[in-house]
């Protein structure tokens, strides 16, 4: 007992400043639970995060992580929710300390090693590319591995560019975990990160045990299409049809997008023809168009600045029983503003709100509109959109204020720029003051007043002689031109 008191005096507590002051001394044990004492739980999560940071410092404390946690958190009853909260509050370089915290809570504080408890730890470690620590935890607590932990592990491996390791993890799974859900998670992770070939090989390898379904085929086709491998996507569509399956509409839309992107890269003038060929093939196979199909076509038309064609397609969507979604409206608004069709862009924004997508017009969308308008030198309308953003309850950020202040100054509107700067300071937005040069096009050139020069006597005499000579010559009879024979 006296050793513990001595260690408490020598080692600093992980709770610092306000966190230590916010945690009162209570006669009952501390609970990591959000239902009974929220303020206490927040302080405990902050204390755990501070402890993880202290263990990750250089040099670390002169004690083992288990002893450190036992010293400061010996009366904690943990829950999965606040374990995840503590990991979310922890500094970036705390991967190994997070693994030690999980081991301490399981061994010392009776935390059940379930999938819900292991998943945030695996996500925390894998996000920092500490895959050896993840593998060690899984080998140490094999019963805790579940769908959530496995999905986080496979997704981060694929995101880190390690598709072979992800396939190896799937191959080493026990029989009860090697099911269709795990295979779908593997294929989805690999296809989303640009490795559909690894996902296809893994699916074919276990086809005798887990036969691929429509969802897996759709994920593979979409992965090949997103990676720009059109031949492989079309081959897989043919194999799926011959196998008695039909890829989903998402797969066809992804292939259509791949066709449009390849045409934009090689020959933009052929994009409409090639897209129409694929649409005819879709209809021949009984695949109807949906809002996603039109969104793909309209987006690619706007990419090559065919705004009028995109608007015509937008007006014809009702012929196929489709209505535009929020992304289609946003793409068209940006394209109309880019084409300097300001009034049509404002009208499209009104239509978007009328269609029920007003919540998608957030601060990020408004900043994109302001950026486009400033790029085409329509600063007055950019200020109008800026006021509209504030009117709908979206607080502008640093980027919006800085961009408008810079553009107003370049347009020789210094008074309005200063007013906008004062407004940003009053709202608590930290806009850094800078020096901006006024564009010469917006500076009015001063007209020089012509001062009448006083003539000298010799100059007056010369002008007088010229006037007299002209007067005398005006009385001389001009010779008539002779008539030609």
Automatic annotation (TrEMBL):
Report the InterPro entries cross-referenced here: PPR_rpt, TPR-like_helical_dom_sf
Q: Where are the PPR repeats?
A: 213-247, 290-324, 362-396
What Pfam family does this protein match (any one)?
A: PPR_2
Give the record's keywords alphabetically.
Repeat, Transit peptide
Q: Which domain of life is it from?
A: Eukaryota
Looking up Gene3D superfamilies in the UniProt record yields: Tetratricopeptide repeat domain
Q: Which family does it belong to?
A: Belongs to the PPR family. P subfamily.
Protein name (database record)? Pentatricopeptide repeat-containing protein PNM1, mitochondrial
Q: In the record, what lineage is assigned to the organism producing the protein?
A: Eukaryota, Viridiplantae, Streptophyta, Embryophyta, Tracheophyta
């Amino acid at each position: 007992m006296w050793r513990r008191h001595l260690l408490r005096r020598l080692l600093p507590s992980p709770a610092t400043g306000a966190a230590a002051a916010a945690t009162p001394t209570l006669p009952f044990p501390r609970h990591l639970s959000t239902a009974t004492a929220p303020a206490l739980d927040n302080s405990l999560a902050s204390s755990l995060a501070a402890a993880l940071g202290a263990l990750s410092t250089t040099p670390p404390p002169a004690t083992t992580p288990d002893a450190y946690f036992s010293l400061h958190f010996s009366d904690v009853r943990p829950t999965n929710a606040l374990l995840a909260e503590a990991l979310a509050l922890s500094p970036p370089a705390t991967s190994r300390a997070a693994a030690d915290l999980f081991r301490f809570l399981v061994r010392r504080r009776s935390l059940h090693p379930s999938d819900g408890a292991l998943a945030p730890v695996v996500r925390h470690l894998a996000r920092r590319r500490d895959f050896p620590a993840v593998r060690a935890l899984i080998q140490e607590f094999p019963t805790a591995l579940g769908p959530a932990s496995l999905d986080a592990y496979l997704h981060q491996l694929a995101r880190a560019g390690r598709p072979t390791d992800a396939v190896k993890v799937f191959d080493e799974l026990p029989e009860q975990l090697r099911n269709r859900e795990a295979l779908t998670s593997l294929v989805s992770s690999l296809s989303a990160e640009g490795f559909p070939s690894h996902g296809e090989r893994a699916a074919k390898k276990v086809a005798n045990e887990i036969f691929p379904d429509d969802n897996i085929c759709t994920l593979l086709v979409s992965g090949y299409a997103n990676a720009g491998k059109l031949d492989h996507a079309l081959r897989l569509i043919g194999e799926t049809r011959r196998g008695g399956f039909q890829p989903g509409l998402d797969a066809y839309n992804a292939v259509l997008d791949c066709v449009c992107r390849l045409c934009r890269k090689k020959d933009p003038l052929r994009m409409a023809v090639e897209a129409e060929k694929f649409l005819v093939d879709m209809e021949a196979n009984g695949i109807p168009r949906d809002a996603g199909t039109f969104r793909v076509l309209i987006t690619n038309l706007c990419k090559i600045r065919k705004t009028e064609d995109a608007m015509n397609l937008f007006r014809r969507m009702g012929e196929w029983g489709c209505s535009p979604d929020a992304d289609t409206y946003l793409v068209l608004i940006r394209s109309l503003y880019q084409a300097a069709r300001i009034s049509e862009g404002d009208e499209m924004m009104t239509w978007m709100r009328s269609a029920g997508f007003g919540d998608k017009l957030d601060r990020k969308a408004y900043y994109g509109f302001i950026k486009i308008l400033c790029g085409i030198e329509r600063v007055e309308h950019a200020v109008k959109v800026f006021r509209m953003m504030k009117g709908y309850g979206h607080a502008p950020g640093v980027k919006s204020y800085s961009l408008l202040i810079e553009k107003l100054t370049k347009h020789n509107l210094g008074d309005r720029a200063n007013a906008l700067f004062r407004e940003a300071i009053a709202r608590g937005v930290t806009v850094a003051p800078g020096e901006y040069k006024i564009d010469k096009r917006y500076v009015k050139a001063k007209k020089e007043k012509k001062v009448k020069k006083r003539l000298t006597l010799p100059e007056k005499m010369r002008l007088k002689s010229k006037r007299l000579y002209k007067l005398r010559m005006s009385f001389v009879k001009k010779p008539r031109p002779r008539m030609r024979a």
